Amino acid sequence: MLTLIATSVAAQSKPGCQSQCGNISIPYPFGTGNGCNISSDFFIRCNTTLDPPKAFLTLTQPDTIFVGGGFIEGDVEVQVLHISLDGYVRISTGANIGSDCYSSSGRDLRPSSGFSYITRELVISHTRNKLTAIGCDTIAYIGSFYKGPFFRQQNFSTGCLTFCSSVADVIPGSCSGIGCCQTAIPKGLRGYEFNFDSPGNHSSVLSFNPCSYGFVVEDGAYDFSVSDLNATDFSKREFPLILDWTVGQQNCTEAQRDPQNYACKENSDCTDPDNNEGYLCKCADGFQGNPYLACQDINECETLKPCSVRGTCHNTPGSYSCSCPTGFEGDGWRNGTGCTPTKPGRESPFILALLVLGSSLGLLVLSAGVRRIYKILQRRRNNKLKQKLFERNGGLLFQKKLSSNEGGLDKAKLFSSKELEAATDQYNENRILGRGGQGLVYKGMLPDGRIVAVKKSKTVNEGFLEQFINEIAILSQIDHRNVVKLLGCCLETEVPLLVYEFIPNGTLSHFIHDQNEEYPRSWDMRLRIAAEVASAISYLHSSASVPIYHRDIKSSNILLDEKFRAKVSDFGTSRSVNIDQTHLTTRVLGTFGYLDPEYFRSSHFTEKSDVYSFGVVIVELLTGQKAVSTFGSEEVRGLVSYFMSAMEENRLLDIIDFEIGRDGLKDEVVAVAQLAERCLNLDGRLRPTMKEVAMELERLRTRPGDFVPTDQPIQSDLSSSENWDTTSFSTEYNTCSITSTSQPDVRPLMLDTI
């Protein structure tokens, strides 16, 4: 009953204003004009010529754009399906479905659809919508295409991959990567456009999948059907989309300083949503109504009837209480002691004093005993909890490996939770060194004065624990000056913790890409870093007691110490291999942009796969560009494709970082570029080993005069650089997990090229 009343009152419009349009309620701050809406962004046009009438919301376009097969400009109206005072509006997107069709003659380059507007107080909800793509040979992604004067510049791309070889592979109703995939969209999105790519031969599936489609839709509103793969009119369908709204562009603190324009009325609270600028209002506890108009007190005595039969209910603003009448004792609550008649009789003052004294002494003794028992029980509970967390965080697996001395785990110390809490000042926000997809890294100091980095994970699951223990096992058997040193771990906390030596100068990615005059980015520095990383990987492949494949070599996994010496890190996906093994057959793991295309196709990871990834790092050092970036146009391309094209066209010196060109070391730069070109060969057999790469880089670094330059043009081993676009499509900040088309297991791919 209480819920029904609150909902009815909350949906109210401004007095004297239209409250309904057909079956759509129009609560203030939305309205139909003439002072009924708080601002122009909240204007609702009710079209009464339709039966039933329909509500429309005006979105201001930034410029002439292409939507649904045609060009439009100026304001655009979208149909409103629902308005919620919880801060969202459900709309019908109309013809905003991107398409990519093929015919027997090849790809039919039709324009892709987009959605864009500059309404300041509404954004596309990143928590209530999903990017969805359907197709059997499809990489679908969306990118922003508006950089307006009112908003922060956005430059992003996000998407997912979907495969299938026949209709029999497809699971109706499932968007898990087989025929259909879904992924989240970025926060604060106000517009997007679709792009498509096909990693395989799309013509082989034309019989049942002539087109690929992409669209942004309310989470749960689309039910995938096998027939959609063969639908030729799918782009004409309409789906609901959720827009988040807020009032104004100020946060709560700023808005409350301007009482005249502050939208939250009496008995309401202000909240700052994390997905948009501006603020929202809600009625305080114990009140109901529209917080932008008025919140009325809820009479809980009538709605809840909380008191006992003899108890008396007292309604107060925002709250309520119960009491007993004269002659009764108790708390008066229906679910408490209720009200019982007071017992008759009087006791003498002396006896009463003895009773009070005896009761007080008894209470003191009882209190001391209870406190002692509580501490004992609390200590037991804490010990049981720590043991439970120890087992959940992989402690039994750790002890099993420790007892068998597998991987040299006896070198890793088990830290207690108290030690690491003290080292990080109770995980103080000021101690955070970095934030990543897997968790946070804190700076800490151990009792012996050592500075350490404490890696605190965000989540715990079975697959993560295997990677966690695997990283401990791998790092415990490595002793190399260019590999980050693992000091130990802690397994008795909510999430497992790893303790590393502290590396003060961040990642190689920041060193290359962040503009900071304090960083020495000379050619000698870059060449030395490349040689040190190669030495570490060569050690893993050839000199460790058991060969180790790193499987995620990238610039963001290479740290720099106080002297800018390289330290290879993040061994969560690494694997030890037997000496007689030539490869690992695994689910494809890694980071797009660094992923070996041969490994991507075959699921066979070899030592040459690490060589390919290292080749990408060399190219980053040469060019100063990211693994996925924009090169001379608005097109997002892979760095490998960009580099190989330059090598093929003899344009190397045009793409190297200007700081390298300033050093005037053309011959050495050419030699390193040719070495990178060999590392990036599509045929893994033709790539050098890491030992050969390390030797060549060390020779160039220590004896640069030995290099004999050639006047011949720098040629690429590839017939066309376009072959690299699919395998190089990504960014260094996010990893993905996908399998070959024979065993589809596609995960969402998030790109961030800001």
TrEMBL record:
Domain of life: Eukaryota
Subcellular location: Membrane
Main location: membrane
Region (Disordered): 704-723
DNA-binding listed as a keyword: no
Alphabetical list of PROSITE patterns matching this protein: ASX_HYDROXYL, EGF_2, EGF_3, EGF_CA, PROTEIN_KINASE_DOM, PROTEIN_KINASE_ST
Domain Protein kinase: 427-700
Protein name: Uncharacterized protein
Organism: Hibiscus sabdariffa (roselle)
